Amino acid sequence: MQQRDKIKPILFSIIKHSSPEELKRQIPRDIVAGIVVAIVALPLSIALGIASGVSPEQGLYTAIVAGFLIAFLGGSRVQISGPTAAFATIVAGIVATDGMDGLIAATIIAGILLILMGLFKLGAIIRFVPFTITTGFTAGIAVTLAIGQLKDFLGLTYPAGTATVETVDKVAALAGNIATVNVQACIVGLVCLAVLFLWPRLAPRVPSSLMALFAGVALVSGLGLDVLTIGDLYAINSGLPEFHLPQL
After folding, report:
1. Which of 4, 209, 211, 224: CA 20 to 30 A from 197?
2. Is 9 exposed, middle or buried (0-12, 13-18, 19+ CB in 10 A)?
C-alpha cells in the first residue's frame, strides 16, 4: 500500500487493494461489526444527547448522519470515530446560552477549522502537547459529566429557573435539592452501573451499554417504579427531522 493511500477513506481504497476473495471474507465481517457498532451507539447517542443539553432524538439523528458521513469520508484505516463525551459539556454550554442555532453555527465553524487544519497538516502539533494535559483534560471531562448526571441518577427535582449551566451551579443545585432524592431512581441507576461494568465479564460480545438499557427498562416497567423515563421528560417525534439554516 502506498503512503498516500493510508490517509484516504477506506471506502475508496479497500476495493483497490483487496482481491475478490478477500472482499468476500471481509464484507460479512464488516456488516456484523457495523450492526454491533449501531447497537452500541443507540444508548450512547441518547445519553450524550441528553448530556449535551439537546433532546434524545437529536442525539440519535446526529449519530446516524455523522456515522454515515464518517464511513463515507473517514480519514484512514486506523481512525476510530463515533459519539464522544469529550465535548458534551461544551455543547451543553453553547445550547444553554445560544440555543440550537448557536450550536449549528459552532458546528459549521468547527468543521471549517478542522478542514483548514487538515489542509495545512497541523495535526502534527499534537506531538508537542504534554501527556499530562491530555490526561487532565480527559479526567476533567469525566468529573464534569458525572456531576451533570447526578441529578437524574439521584432522581432530584429542581425548582423552575434553577441555573445549571456551569459546573459550580450544578454542584450548588445538587446540594440545595438533595432532600428530593428518589430512592427508586438510585436503585435503577446502581443496577444499570453494575450491569455496565460486570456484563463484559459474562458475555463480552454483547454490548454492556445495551444490556444496561434493557435492565433499566425492565426494572421500571416490570416493577412499576416511580422513576421518570425519557418519554416523561422529552417529546419524541416519530417523523424525520426538518432541516433549516441557523439564524446568525
Report:
1. 224
2. middle
Say how far apart CA 187 and CA 218 lie, in whole Å: 13
Total structural domains within the chain:
2
Residues 46 and 70 in one domain: yes
> 42 in a domain, yes or no?
yes
In a domain, 172, yes or no: no
Contacts 24+ apart (CB under 8 A), 131-137: none
164 in Cβ contact with 158 (< 8 Å): yes
Instruction: Concatenate the DSSP letters of all residues of 5-22 into one string.
Output: GGGS-HHHHTTTT--HHH
Whether residue 27 is found in the same domain as residue 94? no
DSSP string for 102-153: HHHHHHHHHHHHHHHHHHTTGGGGGGGS-HHHHHHHHHHHHHHHHHHHHHHH
Global model pTM greater than 0.85: no
Q: Are residues 50 and 12 in the same domain?
A: yes
Classify residue 154: in a domain, yes or no: no
Q: What is the pLDDT of residues 183-195, one digit of tens each?
A: 999 999 999 999 9
Other beta carbons less than 10 A from residue 33's beta carbon? 11
Q: Are 242 and 61 in contact (CB under 8 A)?
A: no
Say yes or no: 47 and 113 in one domain.
Answer: no
Kind and range of the H or E run holding 27: helix 20-51
Are the CB atoms for 82 and 48 separated by under 8 Å?
no
Task: State whether 3 and 14 are in the same domain.
Answer: yes
